[in-house]
Specification:
Elements: H1 2-10, E1 15-19, H2 32-38, H3 50-59, E2 64-70, H4 78-84, H5 106-123, E3 129-133, H6 138-141, H7 150-157, E4 165-168, H8 195-200, E5 206-209, E6 212-215, E7 217-221, H9 236-248, E8 252-256, H10 267-280, E9 298-299, E10 305-306, E11 311-312, E12 330-331, E13 336-338, E14 344-351, E15 357-365, E16 368-376, E17 384-387, E18 411-415, E19 425-426, E20 432-437, H11 440-444, E21 454-459
Parallel strand pairs: 1-2, 2-3, 3-4, 7-8, 14-19
Antiparallel strand pairs: 5-6, 9-10, 10-13, 11-12, 14-15, 15-16, 16-17, 18-20, 20-21
Helix pairs in contact: 2-5, 5-7, 9-10
């Protein structure tokens, strides 16, 4: 197992989608509920909990673990099929001789949810997601208002980790579709010959499904077929191009590779995965231009910028009055200073050598973060836009020069001040801004707390003229 984890870490992968079992009836983790229902002795579930061990080893390398499993009983195990009360949904395929097909299979669904719930509760937050195969007969089995249905299935999967993500696979579909509103991301099963076409269908990070946003995701293979082949079928350059194209739109691609009896991935596939990982890394460089931000304002959810009203002995005292605030003093009434399409992380500075104030504040557009700037002669305003639009931003990817591109987001930071006291003064002839940045794939592909923010320093190439 350690060699396998080492291989994954060398590719810079951030997650692993691992098959716990499929049609044979063998599973790589114990499950007392499954054994009780199926009654096969000795159990076909392993005594070792490989999933738990793997999750622990991966976590130490900052790699998340997700689980692949089918929505149905092991199709090649007739005893398990009968005990679990499962049958194939259409003539042919996995249908047994003389066996009826189709149906809602209520008893099976309840059995299967119980099996899954045991695993989910045992693994808890060590499992970040699930990819459920074989949901081909959704109208027969799951699309009902009463349980069992997709809602109860998803609830069983998330029993141990409500924050885990789930995808239900409708089969190979190009373009990629959302199967149900209970999907958190698309299953996106795509055969390699159709990968190019599927990639072209990715126009945005999200697909809409019943008023619910679902993360765009593709699952394809690198070998001759699923978990097969001696080496990748396409050159590194082509696979890298597909990956970059989807990631640039906020989408995600997962690649299936074979596993040897040794438990290792064949080296040719590891080499291609390494090429993908290396190509997706955006290395920080010292940007040669930049903007500013920051101050002492608070925000409404709708976006107005509000002066924070200091406590004073006299509620009518001027905001600019330097009276020392005492613990027993009161706050003056708030005043609306600025109404604009703004987001958060505001800072306000005094420009050295003038009576002008500068406020810079973070904004959002096209799933990216950037900064706007405003000037005023008084804190009360009026505030006038200095660089306050997407076409004319104060600091955005569009007006930042980078020797090596590494960020498309200019986010939370602070101007380097000309002094060290409470006056928040900056030199308008030497503006520097320390900020946090991330690429589109890093920012859009992670929960906020998992975004790998990196620091950058912006320096003005052309300085604004102070008033």
């Amino acid at each position: 197992m350690n060699g396998f984890v080492d291989q994954l870490a060398s590719t810079r992968a951030k997650y692993l989608l691992f098959t716990i079992g499929q049609n044979s009836g063998h599973y790589c983790a114990p499950n007392a509920t499954y054994d009780r229902i199926v009654g096969i002795t000795p159990s076909k579930c392993s005594r070792r909990d490989l999933v738990a061990d793997l999750a622990k080893a991966l976590s130490a390398r900052n790699i998340r673990l997700m689980i692949y499993m089918p929505n149905g009983a092991p199709a090649a195990d007739p005893v398990a099929r009968q005990k679990l009360r499962w049958r194939w949904g259409a003539p042919g395929g996995w249908q047994l001789p003389g066996e009826p097909v189709g149906g809602r299979l209520v008893e099976f669904q309840r059995n299967w949810e119980a099996v899954i719930r045991e695993w989910s509760l045992r693994w808890g937050k060590s499992i970040s997601g699930w990819w459920i195969d074989g949901c081909y007969f959704a109208d027969q089995m799951y699309r009902f208002d009463d349980e069992p249905n997709f809602a109860s299935f998803a609830r069983a999967l998330k029993a141990g980790n409500p924050e885990s993500i789930v995808a239900f696979n409708p089969g190979v579909k190009v373009p990629v579709i959302c199967h149900t509103k209970y999907d958190d991301y698309t299953a996106g099963e795509v055969n390699l010959p159709e990968l190019s076409k599927a990639v072209e269908t990715c126009s945005d990070r999200w697909l809409e499904c019943g008023g619910h946003k679902v993360q765009f995701h593709i699952l394809s293979f690198l070998g001759k077929t699923w978990c097969g082949g001696d080496r990748p079928q396409l050159p590194d350059e082509q696979i890298v191009a597909y990956t970059r194209k989807v990631a640039a739109k906020g989408g995600v691609i997962t690649y299936d590779v074979p596993i040897q009896k040794s438990g290792l991935i064949p080296e040719p596939f590891v080499e291609q995965l390494r090429a993908i990982g290396a190509a997706m890394v955006v290395k920080p460089a010292e940007p040669t231009s930049k903007p500013f931000v920051d101050g002492t304002f608070s925000w409404k959810a709708s976006g107005p910028l509000i002066l924070p009203n200091r406590r004073t002995a006299d509620p009518a005292i001027s905001i600019k009055d330097p009276t020392i605030v005492r613990d027993h003093d009161r706050w003056s009434p708030p005043q609306l200073a600025l109404q604009a399409d703004i987001f958060e992380a505001s800072h306000t500075y005094r420009l050295r050598g003038s009576g002008t104030y500068l406020t810079i504040v973070e904004a959002q557009a096209d799933q990216r973060r950037y900064y706007k700037a405003y000037l005023a002669d008084r804190l009360e305003g009026p505030w006038t836009g200095l660089a306050d639009s997407r076409k004319k931003p104060f600091a955005a990817v569009s007006n930042v020069v980078q020797d090596t591109a590494w960020t498309t987001n200019i986010s939370h930071g602070e101007l380097l001040r000309s002094g060290t006291d409470e006056t928040m003064e900056v030199d308008p002839t030497n503006v520097q801004f320390l900020f946090q940045g991330a690429s589109d794939s890093e920012y859009r592909g992670n929960p906020y707390g998992k975004i790998p923010w990196r620091l950058g320093l912006l320096e003005m190439i052309q300085h604004p003229t102070s008033r």
